[in-house]
Amino acid sequence: MDIEIVVLGESGKRVLSDSRIRIGQDPNCEVSLQPGKYPTVAGVHLTLEMVNGAVSLARGAPLSGETFVNGHPAAAGATIRSGDILRLGAGGPELRIRLLEQEAYAPPPVAHEPTRVLNHEPTRIISGTTPMTYSSAPPVAPAAAGRQGYTTEVARGVSAAPRPAVQQPAASAAEGEDMSIVEGKVKSLQSILVVCLLILLVLLGCNIWQSWELYQTRDEVQQLRAQAANAVTQFTPALDQRLGVFEQRMDGMDAKVAEAQDRMVKTMDAQTKREEDRMVDRMNAAIPAMLDKYIAGKVAQARQ
Questions:
Q1: For residues 67 and 80, what is the distance between their CA atoms, to the nearest angstrom?
Q2: Regarding the domain delimited by 3-104, which CATH topology (the fold level of the hierarchy) does it fall under?
């Protein structure tokens, strides 16, 4: 049996007749998807198995990733019918499966039969010597459709013969496929909306938490400011008093430093004068002796 596989959103289709069809990103798969384009698809995501003309998800090969059939989660052994939409992973690619032989032998849709309008006969008037007799029957309410599919129509007391009920035309395979695609898209949109709503709720919660933290921080900063202002108010007089005492001490220190400088100058002057006097005394004592010695040396040289 030929199986047609179409990746929705991509051009081209694959018609396979293998008993086992592997689908995934592995290049060895019968249906190999483009690597890296679909992150939710595994190497061998799933395997289709055909047994006695029926197609299902293979039981012997466990599913490597999450698989949805017409928007519903599917497990190994799930039956695949013609027109089903497989989605590989949440938000992954969608594949339309068609069983070509089953569609070829499917019964044609029943044509719509137009509604018949029953004509009633006019009331007959019998003239003559015989008494007039009206044979019209009392009106009968229309019967609902029974299990055999027959209805009864009544027009002005005349009961119409039962006729087969009008059957609605069966939906074509294409319409079923379109409806499956639409249902899959709607469910995908619902999932996306739910995720967006959850993200919005998380962001709202984070915003509320940050607002509360900012409110608490603002209160703490205000309390610290008030404490700092109170501390400054309390310690300012004592600080001013200590600064005044320090300035008074500094004024006394200036006078003492000047006095000490004067004493040092006087002491140094006295010491310098004493040293000068000592040098003069030494020179007065040493120079005459040196002159006498020099003259004696010259006299001795002259005598020789």
A1: 12
A2: Tumour Suppressor Smad4 (2.60.200)
